[in-house]
Amino acid sequence: MSRVFDIIEKERKRQAENIELIASENFCSEAVQRAVGSCLTNKYSEGYPGRRYYGGCVHVDELEEYCIETWQKVFKTDYHVNVQPHSGSSANFAAYLSVLKAGDTVLSLELNNGGHLTHGSPVNLSGKIFNFVFYGVDEKGYIDYDDLRAKALAYKPKLILAGASAYPRIIEFEKFRTVCDEVGAFFMVDMAHIAGLIAAGCHPSPFGLADIVTTTTHKTLRGTRGGLIFCKQELAKKVDSAVFPGTQGGPLQHVIAGKAITAEEALLPEYKTYIENVVKNCKAMCNEFIQMGYTVVTGGTDNHLFLLDLSDKGVTGKAVQEACDEVGITLNKNCVPNEKLSPMLTSGVRIGTAAMTTKGFTAEDFIKTAHRIDEVIRSLQGK
Ligand code: PLP
3-class DSSP state for residue 368? Predict the structure, then answer.
């Protein structure tokens, strides 16, 4: 047997034994894994259903159409859907390419304040091709909507982007739409982190407001690793050609099968209960840290994650991440608003409850884990 299966087995064991608190991770179902590991991986199908560059696409056409319809049901939308992006980053690049030209100005949330690399970081292609400018967060860590409007009026961006990798509060999409209308910008939402909450009705929806919505399918949506793009019907052709042939070749039909099952699962009543528990557990764990005297960015959470600001504890995010790893708790270091340390060190950690809620963790289990993390932090302070 290949050495690869030994490595997979070690990783399976790690996933089974560790407490997984990385806010962008989850555990997808056996059905999703079966679809992603299926014979569909053998099939080339460049193009779109009914318009392929290869023969033998009758079954993958049916699959891709079913996948599209099922996602429209999940988000109760008639937006056009492209299910081919290989990842969240690929979805974002194709979305940019659909409405922007090199050098165009885009307004987004900076990486250090909770944004994502693909939202214009200078080390990412997005920041090299387009002229990204950034809105900030206020002293508490909330999106500064006055700054958003001021920057929009000053820079006249072609596109304004809402969405984040590390933002614990509700994003007020209407406010973004108003600013976009004022300056004539396209409105794009990258809902990768909160897509599951939106699907379950636990976060306001961007559908009807945004021109383009991108997401990953593997975070709170609990599916296979991949990306999706939704857009208003008038942008459908532009988005489709930005995905293929603009930025990708053959779609991964085995992954599209996994995405279709992810959508079916998100339509089940148990999924709504799951997401409600994710949010409830997150509040419970976050409140426990506050009770123990920790500083939490924005003073709490509305979603599946929260950020501990450790600047008053004399430990770095990196040290806490490494020490937690040693006791089987997986989380990640994260910048806090107005970060003073480098992104390799950071003053904070990001904690999410989506993955362990899938494993059946209750609020009490998360509270116990908060105390375990507190012990780890106190042991570091003693060093
Ligand atoms: N957008 C946001 C908001 C994210 O948090 C992430 C990943 O963490 C991505 C996009 C990129 O997704 P992927 O890692 O699938 O490229």
Answer: helix
